[in-house]
Automatic annotation (TrEMBL):
A divalent metal cation binds at residues 152, 306, 340. This is Tagaturonate/fructuronate epimerase. Belongs to the UxaE family. Its EC number is 5.1.2.7. It catalyses: keto-D-tagaturonate = keto-D-fructuronate. HAMAP family: UxaE. Its cofactor is a divalent metal cation. It comes from Ktedonobacter robiniae. Keywords: Isomerase, Metal-binding. It holds the Pfam family UxaE.
Length: 479
């Protein structure tokens, strides 16, 4: 029926349900697509065409909502303990490529995922991020469950707009309440700090906590026992963070009402490593305070930096991950181990899968943006050179809130590279990090030009994304 009208339909999007057909159609403007509704059009806002048989609707938040109401699989949902992967998309056009990558892998996807920090830098709202992901899932014909991650929520005030937009996965980052100095404090200082913790929020006391933890725990072959010092260190380092996580949880529960959601606890963006004993302490405290969570992102040994493989001793990391996995088993495998800053950590994936038996959430964010830049490098070399030079000028400022170690001096001199060598710059450690952390500034300055080019080369962008994510997902797939 819809095909008889001779509209430029995107085939993968076409779906018929309850006597109504929905599809995306392209327009003369690259990237501008319209929703075509043939049948029951009530609830949609658009223009009736072809003797009023079809309504063409702009991709507005209102029409997104109406479409979600009609096609329930376009609403994000909870994913539970399935092996899962988050695909951050800073530009809002990468989801069709993500769908192609994740399809038939058995990995449960999170297509909408943006932190408050990223939203600030890209100028997008939680609703826009979710709607963009939804339109992408619709366009590519994704019909299975997918999640929406309100990433790195730090303050109570961060929560509300994500609830309003219908997010299903809430990543709580209590980093502002983690006391990294505890690593250096002596026992007397720790004692003093411990007595000043918000014990009423923790519904406990230092005394009671000491009684609870001063014993040997049988965790497979790990000799895990707290002594006064290690317990005080764990309590001081994470006690206030645990209290904050409980506060954040209550707020989410309050605002979400009956709507199902899941939570992740992330302490990955702290200065110090999360010791196994501290993982144990955090989880038992959260259980005691009835904080439900589906995954935990500790800070592992070594360095997980943006956009590059693991930096550190891989054997040491493996032992570390094995230890975290033992603790997870002690808690009956009730949550997943989450790999934050997870893009491009190709050596880490098989290790994590092996030790957790698939209880893993992989979180990637900037890598899809870097693939966009790789595409730009191959189709418009002078524009790419402009972006690189600008990114270099912004690096010292923009790197401040990220874990990166690239130095500008190690970047190849861009004027000495031929056009053919440019895409390869995206394989160079320092260049990747410089381009990774400057995305906000680059989008501010070049956003519309970048969008325009990518929209003109959408099929290529999807190919680039799929090629890059195939390398990620091969370690996680169950099909
Ligand atoms: Zn993180």
């Amino acid at each position: 029926m819809l095909y008889n009208l001779n509209l430029p339909i995107i085939d993968t999007s076409v779906v018929t349900l309850d006597n109504t057909t929905y599809a995306l159609v392209t327009t003369a403007i690259p990237g501008e697509k319209l929703l075509a509704v043939l049948g029951h059009t009530n609830g949609f806002v658009g223009e009736l065409q072809h003797s009023d048989r079809v309504m063409l609707c702009a991709r507005t938040p209102e029409n997104a909502r109406a479409l979600r109401a009609r096609l329930p699989w376009l609403q994000p949902s909870v994913l539970g303990l399935q092996t899962s992967a988050g695909f951050g998309d800073r530009l809002g056009i990468a989801t069709p490529g993500h769908v192609q990558s994740v399809r038939d892998t058995g990995v449960a996807p999170i297509f909408a995922q943006q932190s408050v920090r990223e939203n600030t830098r890209t100028g997008r709202t939680p609703q826009q991020v979710l709607d963009d992901a939804m339109w992408g899932a619709f366009e590519a014909g994704w019909r299975e469950p997918w999640g929406a991650d309100a990433d790195h929520l730090k303050a109570l005030a961060d929560i509300e707009p994500f609830i309003a937009a219908g997010y299903t996965f809430y990543t709580i980052d209590p980093g502002d309440y983690v006391d990294d100095d505890a690593e250096e404090d002596d026992t007397a200082t720790l004692r003093q700090k411990a007595s000043a913790l918000p014990w009423s929020d923790l519904r406990s006391s230092l005394n009671e906590t000491q009684q609870r933890y001063h014993r040997q725990f049988d965790i497979e072959d790990l000799p895990l026992a707290f002594d006064e010092y290690t317990l005080l260190k764990a309590v001081v380092k994470y006690g206030a963070a645990v209290a904050h996580m409980a506060r954040m949880t209550r707020r989410i529960q309050e605002l979400a009402g009956q709507r199902p959601f899941e939570m992740e606890i992330s302490v990955d963006e702290t200065r110090t490593t999360t010791a196994l004993l501290e993982h144990f302490y955090i989880v038992s405290e959260l259980k005691r305070l009835s904080v439900p969570f589906v995954s935990l992102a500790p800070r592992f040994v070594g360095r997980f930096e943006k956009g590059v493989d693991y930096i550190g001793d891989l054997a040491e990391l493996e032992q570390n991950i094995a230890g975290h996995a033992s603790i997870m088993r002690y808690f009956h495998n009730a949550y997943k181990l989450s790999l934050h800053t997870g893009s491009d950590k190709f050596e880490v994936y098989p290790i994590t899968m092996r030790h957790t038996q698939g209880l893993v959430h992989l979180k990637t964010a900037g890598t899809s943006y870097l693939e966009a830049l790789r595409l730009i490098a191959s189709i418009d070399s002078s524009f790419f050179r402009e972006i690189v030079e600008f990114a270099c000028s912004r690096y010292d400022t923009d790197r401040k809130t990220y874990h990166v170690s690239a130095t500008l001096a190690k970047l190849p001199v861009i004027t000495s590279l031929t056009d053919e060598q440019l895409p390869d710059l995206l394989n160079q450690f320092d260049a990747r990090q410089v381009l990774h952390v400057t995305f906000g500034s680059v989008l501010d300055t070049f956003g519309s030009r970048l969008d325009h080019l990518l929209n003109e080369h959408q099929a290529d962008y999807q190919v680039f994304i799929k090629r890059h994510f195939d390398k990620h997902l091969v370690a996680f797939r169950s099909r």
